[in-house]
Specification:
single chain; six-stranded mixed sheet; alpha/beta; Nucleotidyltransferase, domain 5; 8 strands
């Protein structure tokens, strides 16, 4: 990961030297890319507990294979009576007992969802403690539960991937993020997350741009998935002229036009007052074609590696390739 990150930075510096990076306007967006795992290999925490109870008795060898050769009819009778005593349903054969034992051992080696849920609960509690001093409009959020969410999913092929909603429905995927410069559609920062929500990625991308190039963009645009009071406040603190869509109401009225905090309402007025000349219009024509070139033109629609760190390195390689091709196109045109 470090080597590929350094390679991305070297290529980005070459693009800046060639005059392809202006940082006048940068557009941010994320796209869901399928993981190297099937969503049918995922299981919820509630189903895990039930399945664990189903597998465990089988692994404890209620039925033992016969040690001496006995008539077939007698063996069948012995197996049936053993199955009846253990109350595990139909008669269990030698191969069935081995399969159950193997599944149980594999099940026990699988990383537990409960530990991950405990870390998530602790993180939510810490965020709530930090937010206690800040007053927010609306109804206060409910405190996080101490119990894991029964619907939390765990995939056995790639446990670090998540089920996310995309244009193709629900897929087992990762959320790949990119910040694209409007000058020549150069990716100036990238990130990859396990969360389907984009809201927590705006500030890391802006900070990554400054880390990579030593300066901040003048303007930054993002869709409504990045809109929150804290993100808008962070853009002002970084001195970036932000254009983040505040979202639309399903049934617009004069009253719900004031939904959101003061910064959200100010952003809504800022974009509306700009009309067709607002810089927000650049967002779609800057970042969306980059994802189209990666997914459609180059056919990259699924990661090959597994695990968030390896997949993050793979996404860095894809972003590096995109910038290299832009640099090659410039060299060929010269």
């Amino acid at each position: 990961m470090k080597a590929l990150g350094a390679l991305f930075l070297q290529v980005l510096k070459l693009c800046e030297t060639a005059g392809l990076v202006k940082l006048g306007h940068v557009a941010l967006d994320g796209t869901k890319i399928k993981a190297n795992a099937s969503k049918h290999k995922a299981m919820s925490y509630e189903r895990m507990k039930k399945r664990e109870a189903e597998l465990k008795p089988r692994s404890l060898a209620c039925w033992q294979p016969p040690r001496r050769r006995i008539p077939k009819r007698t063996r069948r009778s012995a197996k049936t009576s053993a199955a009846t005593r253990c109350r595990i349903g139909p008669a269990t054969s030698r191969n069935g007992w081995r399969r159950s034992s193997k599944r149980w051992r594999r099940w026990r080696r699988t990383p537990g969802l409960a530990a991950e849920e405990e870390r998530r609960i602790e993180a939510e509690k810490e965020q709530q403690r930090q937010a206690e001093g800040r007053k927010k409009p609306g109804k206060p959020a409910a405190p996080p539960s101490d119990q894991p969410d029964p619907k939390s999913q765990r995939n056995f092929t790639d446990p670090e991937s998540r089920i996310m909603k995309s244009k193709d429905g629900f897929v087992q995927a990762y959320n790949a993020q990119a910040a694209v410069d409007a000058g020549a559609q150069i990716i100036v920062a990238h990130e990859l997350t396990q969360r389907g929500n984009d809201q927590g990625q705006l500030v890391p991308l802006i900070e990554a741009i400054e880390t990579n190039l030593g300066r901040k963009p003048e303007q930054a645009s993002a869709d409504s998935g990045y809109c929150s009071e804290s993100n808008l406040e962070a853009l002002e603190a970084h001195g970036v002229d932000g254009y983040v869509a505040p979202g639309r109401a399903k049934h617009p009225t004069a009253a719900n036009g004031k939904i959101g905090g003061p910064l959200t309402q100010r952003m809504r007025k800022k974009i509306d007052d700009g009309g067709f000349e607002t810089p927000y219009r650049l967002r779609k024509q800057v970042v969306e074609p980059v994802f189209g070139q990666i997914k459609q033109a180059r056919g990259f629609r699924q990661f090959l590696l597994r695990g968030v760190e390896k997949v993050r390195a793979e996404w860095a390689l894809i972003c590096t390739t995109h910038n290299l091709l832009k640099l090659f196109t410039l060299a060929m045109a010269a």
